[in-house]
Amino acid sequence: MPAHPLVADLPLPAAPLWGALAATPSGLHQAVAQDVDEHAHNLTAWHQQYDQLGAGCFVGRLTEWRLPHIQVFREQTSQALRQSCEVWADSFWFGVPDPAATLPTRINGRLHGSHDVMVRPGGERFDLVTPDRHSLFGVVVQRQALQDAAARQGCHVDWDALHQAEVLRVQEGARHACLNALDGLLPLSEPHATGWHGADLVAMEGAVLSLLLDLLDTSEADTAVRQSVARRQKVVAHAREYVLAHPDQAVTVPELCERLHVSRRTLQYCFEEVMGLSPIQYLRAIRLNGARRHLREAARHGQGVQDVAARWGFWHLSQFALDYRKLFGESPSDTLTRGAH
To answer: Which domains are assigned to the chain?
Structure first.
């Protein structure tokens, strides 16, 4: 696979700074959620939708520093998720999995190596599939702020390579230093944010920018996308779109094969590589997550569990309740009741 160096000793012209988080107050923010949608909305200035794939009650924890031009966060999730994400515009996101994580993450259908760093530009959707008991450090930096910092340090960032990349191959020393610094900013125990003033936040932002430039200076961007991975990701995306377009139908694997013009074996391979799940498992999870979202709003519209189940193609209520409890750790009626309050 071709790789491209990202940083060279060439100056770039400076430009005025403007942060996408300017409308939100700087400082430390923390949140705990017991629902994947609530958790997805807790991350500032992101457009996200999460589907729960792992079985059991969900708990999501987020610790986030909002700085003038940078967002630094630690995200912990108890259950495996499919995440559809879009970072705020004119920025870059860098994702560094916690070294304690034992299972890999998939980004746009590609397995992410345990010693790599994920990256995506702002304003473009990307998909993650994260395992149970996942922990991730994230840094989102406004592009101009990174460019100005690179100019001050006499470095040039290859924006084209960075924009195309999904994975950065990073030297272990730089990655280890970055993880240690982020762990200090976002410890597992509750951070103490008292006494932080504007000058402290500016200094913190400068330190994070230096960490990112150190990573880029010792990394190569893997911009190669295998055609087979891209094709399989497209098959999975079309399957999801078809199921969501026909929510009241229990779409079968043979029906999907016919609609997508692929064999059953090809469909199986696509889902296993992109999602780490079989088509049947994923299709059921899509519908159950859709039913859960509907249940959280149903009581306000005078609807009950049976109405929602039928809306999502579950015609056997006892089996629906069994599958629902297995995935989410609670009954459909519990979700309906909680949504009413």
So the answer is: 3-222 (2.60.120.10), 227-339 (1.10.10.60)
